[in-house]
Specification:
This protein is of the alpha/beta class. It folds into three domains: 58 residues, Arc Repressor Mutant, subunit A, CATH 1.10.10; 138 residues, Nucleotidyltransferase, domain 5 (2-Layer Sandwich), CATH 3.30.420.40; 157 residues, 2-Layer Sandwich (Nucleotidyltransferase, domain 5), CATH 3.30.420.40. Helix content is 40%, strand content 19%. It has 14 helices and 14 strands. It has a five-stranded mixed β-sheet with strand order 5-4-3-6-9, with helices on both faces. Strands 12-11-10-13-14 form a five-stranded mixed β-sheet. α2 crosses α3, α4 packs parallel to α5 and α10 packs parallel to α11. The longest helix is centred in the C-terminal third of the chain and has 25 residues. The protein is globular, with a radius of gyration of 22 Å. The two termini are 17 Å apart. It comes from Actinomadura rubrisoli.
């Protein structure tokens, strides 16, 4: 299923070559998948010297995934096919601080409505993926001690979503999903990647040897690394001088408010920078230096192939330029010699793409059930 869904194989011969299975075994399994309505076989694929093989693809009736990337005040909703390609997209406004039950119920209802609006009501939903702006325990699907999500601590998000939607659920940190989506969509040839998400908060996803590295759930969480600062600022986590307390979109908004400049979102900060407002430009450059200081140690330690900067604040060019300058100035030459530092190529839907990819990993049950029928 994954080989066909991701386009790595489009014929029985290619499946046999990539899987190492005998051609007869592959043919039997393909026939089972076609009979179950998961595969379709049509047209003719590329020839490797003999007769042109019939081309395999996922059947439309195979199903879709419903995906939501949640922020503090909005969610990006999507219906994606089993290859992770978005079929429908929309945005939903809400306040994550109202609590998990109300938020997740409105998100799931919004996802079903989106599918219906685009003529996908009768296509089976095979799984739901939720990206959250907080730490997620991969073993339990619970949010653990989030600093900006009151009422969510230890809430069983995965169990709630699966129960409400009636299908398997994937719950993951939003920066992790962004890392997977960015890797799959834009950097598939690279094995080791760091993806930084700069928005209202700060997150980081890590790809190691081509796979998402979760650790025990906190891998890549740089938001609460302590920094050196002239003025102490208490973080929402309860500790002083975390990176997020000084350099996140929320921190920049608070700093600008001290200058009499009111902003509600990171996008508004980017607009001020684009318009050349000096206080905003100075603020994002200061944030860039602080972020660069933290990333310098990580680049030296991990030595990634690329560092990708995403999230709404990545559109503030002075911030990205400052991060890049600090890293190239302070990292070991060997760590930066072949390092590429770039802004996101997958854009605002990177997390959606990441969730679509990872959902195949939690889909074994319904595939088995479809074959049994």
């Amino acid at each position: 299923m994954r080989l066909v869904a991701t386009g790595q194989a489009e014929s029985r011969a290619e499946l046999a070559r990539l899987s190492g299975l005998a051609a007869s075994s592959v043919s039997l399994r393909v026939e089972q998948l076609i009979a179950a309505g998961l595969f379709a076989e049509e047209g003719a694929g590329a020839s490797r010297g003999g007769r042109r093989p019939r081309r395999l693809r996922l059947a439309r009736a195979a199903g879709v995934f419903l995906v939501a990337d949640l922020g503090a005040h909005h969610a990006r909703l999507a219906v994606v096919d089993l290859a992770g390609t978005p079929l429908a997209l929309s945005d939903l406004a809400f306040d994550i601080a109202v609590g998990p039950k109300e938020t997740l119920t409105s998100v799931i209802d919004g996802l079903h409505a989106l599918a219906a609006e685009h003529g996908l009501r009768d296509v089976p939903v095979r799984g739901v993926g939720i990206g959250l702006p907080g730490p997620v325990d991969p073993a339990t699907g619970q949010v653990v001690s989030p600093s900006r999500m009151p009422g969510w601590n230890d809430f069983p998000v995965r169990d709630f979503v699966a129960g409400h939607a009636g299908v398997p659920a994937l719950v993951e940190n939003d920066a992790n999903l962004m890392a997977v989506g960015e890797h799959r969509a834009a950097w598939p040839a690279l094995d080791n990647l760091m993806v930084i998400k700069l928005g209202s908060g700060i997150g980081c996803g890590v790809i190691v040897d081509g796979r998402l590295h979760r650790g025990r759930g906190a891998a890549g969480d740089i938001s609460h690394v302590r920094i050196l600062s002239e003025a102490t600022v208490d973080c929402s986590c309860g500790h002083p001088d975390c990176l997020e307390a000084h350099a996140s979109g929320a921190a920049l908004a608070a700093s600008l408010a001290g200058h009499g400049i009111a902003v509600d979102t990171p996008s508004e900060i980017v607009a001020l920078v684009t318009d050349g407002v000096p206080q905003a430009t100075s603020a994002v450059r200061t944030a860039g230096r602080l972020i660069g200081d933290v990333l310098t140690a990580l680049v030296n330690f991990f030595n990634p192939d690329a560092l990708v900067i995403g999230g709404s604040l990545s559109l503030a060019e002075p911030l990205v330029a400052t991060v890049r300058g600090v890293i190239y100035e302070r990292c070991l030459p060997l760590a930066t010699r072949n390092l590429e530092i770039a802004t996101s190529r997958a854009g605002r839907d990177a997390s959606i793409l990441g969730a679509g990819h990872l959902l195949l990993d939690v889909s074994d049950t319904w595939i088995d059930q479809a074959l049994d029928r």
